């Protein structure tokens, strides 16, 4: 198992360095031998997004989620893939379960915020974003310190 985990880690490094095709090739080989590796599937989703194959990335993330529904990274990868497809409402739907599983992940929180802004709740988001400013002006009577 250590060798296969090293392969997935190597593929991840390739993808993170922008070598999407090489990372994908390693992941394709690995998944041919280990089709139930949820981590490899969500790593493949990342490589596919980098290659501009977002629909395939959604499918890879779907497979990862079906194998391990508790993995926040798989939901985040599906949200990113859907965002690149300009599917405005659905990234928010994927970011929510990712955030519920990993509340401290900055990427997931950014996707969640983006999803709120891009759905029909934009006025609500603006209202909440302006709340600190309204409070500031209430404290200082509209004057800047």
From TrEMBL:
Keyword S-adenosyl-L-methionine in annotation: no
Coiled coil: none
Assigned keywords, A-Z: TPR repeat
Transmembrane segments: none
TPR repeats: 38-71
Record has Ion transport as a keyword: no
Protein name: Cytochrome c-type biogenesis protein CcmH/NrfG
């Amino acid at each position: 198992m250590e060798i296969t985990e090293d392969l997935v880690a190597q593929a991840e490094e390739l993808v993170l360095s922008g070598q999407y095709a090489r990372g994908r090739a390693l992941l394709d080989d690995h998944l041919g031998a280990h089709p139930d590796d949820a981590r490899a599937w969500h790593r493949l989703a990342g490589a596919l997004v980098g290659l501009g194959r977002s629909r395939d990335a959604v499918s890879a993330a779907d497979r990862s989620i079906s194998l391990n529904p508790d993995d926040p990274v798989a939901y985040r990868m599906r949200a990113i893939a859907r965002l690149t497809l300009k599917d405005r409402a659905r990234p928010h739907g994927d970011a929510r379960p990712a955030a519920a599983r990993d509340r401290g992940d900055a990427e997931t929180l950014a996707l969640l915020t983006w999803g709120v802004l891009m759905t029909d709740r934009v006025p609500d988001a603006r209202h909440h974003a302006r709340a600190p400013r309204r409070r500031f002006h209430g404290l200082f009577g509209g004057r800047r310190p």
